[in-house]
Design a protein that fits this description.
0% strand, Serine Threonine Protein Phosphatase 5, Tetratricopeptide repeat, elongated, 69% helix, 549 residues, 24 helices, mainly alpha
Length: 549
């Protein structure tokens, strides 16, 4: 393996830390948004750090359900700084920078392996540094740092890369057993962070088969037990998801068919690939699955199948390059294939780890292009004047600078809850949930007219959208338009049955209209159903009725 001096490695790591910190220094005071509120602000389960097995206690159907390692990270954040958002952003950024450092190590060591061409070995460190810097600064990563709970993606990616790094180190080390043990430990931690980690054991075996100089029979003989231990970590993941901690948002029972979801994914995976090259506009939330016709999905589907065929062909002819394509599609497959994620049809953070392989491929293609230009375009007398390293530094610095600026600007979109939803609606107007959430923000501020406007816009996209209908009724109630509110709530009760929460809302509207008997009847039904919030309203209605008698 080609050796680099410690000073070169140290300076490279320092540069990654410096660039990462400078890009996201403006994000530390950005507020909690969307799902952050349920898991980091209004979640009493993170308020007690000890005993540590509290990490296995989480709210139902939320982003940390079945993900104890992420739950533990939130508990540590709370123990250190309570609900101060600054500490949560610092954690996300540190984890992101650590990912870039480990990625740098994985790429550098891979490009220095025995069966890698000598021309690449000599440039392994600058190629690895360029790839890591571009990955670190890419604007598509901004969601994971600014949106607190998306540390699920960062933490999983960190353990994914650490598992790879330890596996690579175990091949030519006097401490091979130590590195293998660490790889298995990190793999277990990744399984407790996010389900995408399920792909890691397979990818490590494929990596060794492609990059190791050993023949596959000898490789399996020497490392078969290690592979088996990695595979056993699947049981950890199976135990965590056995009780269906997010059954309401993931699976085949939520009304979204695998075919419908897969057709949506054809469109959005191609969209992700476009964002790699032109990351604008970026969207926080794409909402749920939408109906897609065959005609709409066909162009993206054909292009996606073509790319898959190209990856398979490249894996056969040029396996080291083909591995990069496999990395992208395999890591995307748990969330972007046919298993429906009901509440979220697409998310840019899904490209967090796949992006690494695409950037490495682009960096290598650029490097080979510069070599070709030097060899084929310039005459023999002028070749010495073409300094590839100087040109590479200029290109990488320029692109990283542009990406850093775009990431800084994108972080400003997260500076207020209003701004991030406004930007999401502007970029993706078809998202009913974004319009509803913006309406909720205005309602919280007492700006009910504006809230009602966005609730109605959401209902124009989906007239049956339950959240906007309920929120619309509540807004009417706040505006003293009790009759309009009652009409909304009674319609919802007729459609959804006697839900105690809806019955209470009906009672509140009836109380405002003076229909005390009807209000008391609905409150009593809600209380009998165990909805204790209705008791206060019941007492108030009974007291008013008594005073009128």
């Amino acid at each position: 393996m080609q050796k680099n001096s410690y000073s070169e490695i140290f300076l490279s790591c320092f540069l990654l830390i410096f660039v990462g910190w400078m890009i996201y220094a403006n994000s530390f005071n950005n507020p909690f948004i969307f799902d952050d509120l349920g898991v980091a602000v209004d979640n009493p389960k993170i308020e007690q750090l000890w005993p540590l097995w509290n990490m296995f206690v989480w709210p139902d159907n939320c982003a940390v359900s079945g993900r104890p390692v992420v739950n533990l990270s939130l508990t540590i954040n709370y123990a250190l700084g309570g609900s101060d958002v600054w500490g949560y952003h610092v954690f996300n950024l540190i984890a992101h920078i650590l990912c870039s450092l480990v990625l740098f190590g994985v790429i550098r060591r891979t490009l220095q392996m025995e069966n890698i061409p000598e021309s690449i070995k000599k440039s392994a460190l600058p190629l690895a540094l360029s790839s890591s810097l571009l990955w670190l600064a890419h604007p598509i990563q901004t969601e994971c740092i600014n949106y607190i709970i998306q540390r699920t993606e960062i933490i999983m990616a960190l353990f994914y890369l650490l598992t790879f790094y330890c596996s690579i180190r175990s091949q030519n080390s006097h401490y091979s057993r130590f590195w293998k043990i660490m790889a298995v430990i990190f793999c277990i931690c990744g399984m407790g962070s996010k389900e995408v980690m399920v792909t890691a054991p397979f990818m490590i075996v494929l990596y060794d088969l492609i990059f190791s100089p050993l023949p596959w029979r000898k490789l399996l003989k020497e490392r078969g037990q290690f592979y088996a231990c990695l595979a056993l970590t699947w049981f950890v993941l199976a135990a965590l998801i056995m009780e269906g901690p997010r059954a309401a948002s993931v699976g085949f029972s939520g009304g979204v068919s695998p075919l419908e979801y897969a057709m949506n994914q054809c469109i959005f995976v191609i969209h992700y690939f476009r964002l790699v090259f032109f990351p604008y506009p970026l969207v926080l939330d794409y909402g749920g699955t939408v109906p897609v016709t065959w005609g709409e999905a066909a162009p993206s589907g054909i292009l996606l199948l073509t790319l898959l065929a190209l990856v398979v062909g490249t894996l056969y002819k040029l396996p080291k390059i083909g591995f990069l394509g496999v990395w992208v599609f395999v890591i995307l497959s748990p969330s972007s294939s046919f298993v429906p994620i009901i509440t979220e049809v697409a998310a840019e953070r899904r490209m967090y780890l796949p992006l690494a392989a695409m950037i490495v491929l682009l960096v290598l293609l650029s490097y080979f292009s510069l070599l070709w230009i030097k060899d084929k375009v310039f005459s023999e007398e002028n070749r010495e004047n073409f300094n590839i390293r100087l040109v590479s530094v200029f290109l990488v610095t320029t692109i990283v600078g542009l990406m850093s600026w775009a990431s800084i600007m994108r972080s400003f979109d997260y500076s207020t809850s209003e701004q991030i939803w406004v930007s999401s609606i502007k970029a993706y107007p078809k998202n009913k949930r974004a319009k509803n959430n913006l309406g909720v923000i205005y309602a919280d501020w007492g700006r009910y007219e504006k809230a009602i406007l966005y609730y109605k816009q959401a209902l124009e996209l989906d007239p049956k959208y339950y959240l906007s209908r309920e929120n619309l009724g509540v807004a009417y109630l706040k505006q003293k338009k009790a009759q309009d509110a009652l009409t909304v709530f009674e319609t919802l009760v007729a459609e959804r049955g006697e839900n105690p929460h809806l019955l209470t809302l009906c009672g509140m509207a009836q109380f405002e209209l003076g229909f005390l008997d009807d209000a008391i009847d609905n409150y009593q039904k809600a209380v009998r159903a165990g909805y204790w919030k209705a008791r206060h309203h019941l007492k108030k209605a009974m007291k008013k009725k008594k005073s009128l008698e």
